[in-house]
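fyi for ur records
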Amino acid sequence: MNKMILIVLLFYGCVSIAQPGIKTSDSLKETVNQYTPAMKSVPLSDTNIILNNEDDVKAQLILFALNNAQAVAADASVRIAEIARRKANSSFLGSVNLGGNVNEFVINNSPAANFFPKYNFGLTIPLDMFAKNKAEKRTANEMIIINTSQKELIGEALKAKVLIQYENYKEKKVLLELQRITTDDDIAAYEKAQKDYKNDIITIDDVNKIYREMIRSRGNLVSREKDLNIAIIEIEETIGVPLKTVLEKRQH
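which gave:
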């Protein structure tokens, strides 16, 4: 009887032993914190924040990017793996069957009670229980490692992606501004050419040449506007909010 009680206590003692945890750093926050310490305590919902410099703008973009659906899903995968590990830690209890009964003759005060034990207990333990439980816990631990690594890779990829997209956006914006200046100059040149033609200063061929240059310039302007709009769409797809939500916070 004492041996059976000892076995039961050992089983329940295994449940209370904490499994060695796997260090899972929150790469999403760490990535942003490493990029700029100034943004460590800035919540995304703070509409009164002022971004003082270019680093603050980039850090804010990273914060938004690392809260998009892809990053949230990666974080959820880690939590699911941790739940699976906790479940594996106690799964062996479902394999242990503990039963017992009391002698009915004892209950009925029958003279035959002396010929039978007053009570008995039974414990059923599958032979592969320990090996199976060990394999489940090891699998759960490996899944945490895999999912944590995937989350970190996704976080780093999103950080690089949004920074590249922001640089692309800035380039397209400057090119559009330069093209607008060029187009305005070409339009002004065409208007002047029309006046010069009326005053017999230049020929019609000169006017047509300046006109074709103006048309080409206006076409380039349309292309630059399209390129900038695409750059904005791409970055907004990553951060999940309008780009102006971030840029409007910058101090001018």
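Strands lie at 97-102, 119-124. thats all i got for now
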